[in-house]
Amino acid sequence: MTALSAPVFRHGEAPAPPGPLVSLRGVEKRFANGTLALAGVDLDIAPGEFLSLLGPSGCGKSTLLRLITGLAEPSAGRIAWAPGHEERRRAIGFVFQDPTLMPWATALDNVRLPLRLAGVPRAEGEARAAAALARVGLAGFERAFPRELSGGMRMRVSIARALVTQPSLLLMDEPFAALDELTRHRLNDDLLALWAESGITVVFVTHSVFESVYLSTRILVMTPRPGRVVAELRHDGVPAPREAEYRTSAAYAALCREASHALAAATGMAP
User: Which of 232, 163, 234, 241 has the alpha carbon at shortest distance from 201?
Assistant: First the structure.
């Protein structure tokens, strides 16, 4: 596997984690119609990292997230959680490409939904939902309905809903793909700030080289269906926080070029 060359990025001063939060070994997924979506996937997810899955549409990235959550089961292979985390996987936060908000409910009630389903008392749930909305920059919009919010604001509500359960692992399935570039950049910056502040582990699905390089400490490049991990690109070297100027730097351009070459090799296309 190739590696992006860069100085070491220190996410806080904590010592290196003793082992992965989640490990996948030989994971395969074949659907009932015979389609082989994933084959031979080996993957370790380290606590506190920002990991991006980069690959073409239809390569099984979203399927991989669903397997990690337990929404689907692998056809072969195994998924193992670190000791003491087996039950915590129920508290995984998941952000879909579409915000999937209830149109009849306020932003506060949309965010409170996981807590309500878990039986958290209303007063506590509303307080936690309001805090989650404030965390994503939506303080004052608690009573707004989805139709009253912009696309970027609706996605912020979706992220707040994923964070309100205080998960240790946040899975994001191309959450910003449908947004305009300016909004996407702003949400990228805000997501990095949330990640650095909370220490949460993030697995982020994208088919954008530029987004993956900007956000990630590590990128896994996947082949077209059946999806396999064929390259690991480490991008630990940019001091936090990454600022907008980084997008126009020579270092960023070089890393994007290397990721583009790795993706082209994975898909059998010339860079």
Answer: 163
Instruction: Give the start-end residues of each E strand in 127-228.
Output: 169-173, 201-206, 218-222
Question: Phi and psi dihedrals of 100, rounded to 5?
Answer: 50, 50
Given the DSSP bridges, would you call strands 218-222 and 229-234 parallel, antiparallel or unpaired?
Answer: antiparallel
The pLDDT-based confidence of 241 (bands split at 50, 70, 90) is low
The rounded distance, in Å, linking the Cα atoms of 193 and 214 is: 13
Whether residue 195 contacts residue 5, with contact meaning beta carbons closer than 8 Å, is answered with no
Kindly report, residue by residue over 150-178, the tens digit of the pLDDT: 999 999 999 999 999 989 899 999 999 88
Q: Are 235 and 256 in contact (CB under 8 A)?
A: no
Q: E strands along 196-248, which residues?
A: 201-206, 218-222, 229-234
Residue with tokens 């370790």: 44
CA 124 to CA 144: how far, in whole Å?
A: 20
Return the structure tokens found at 209: 């080289």
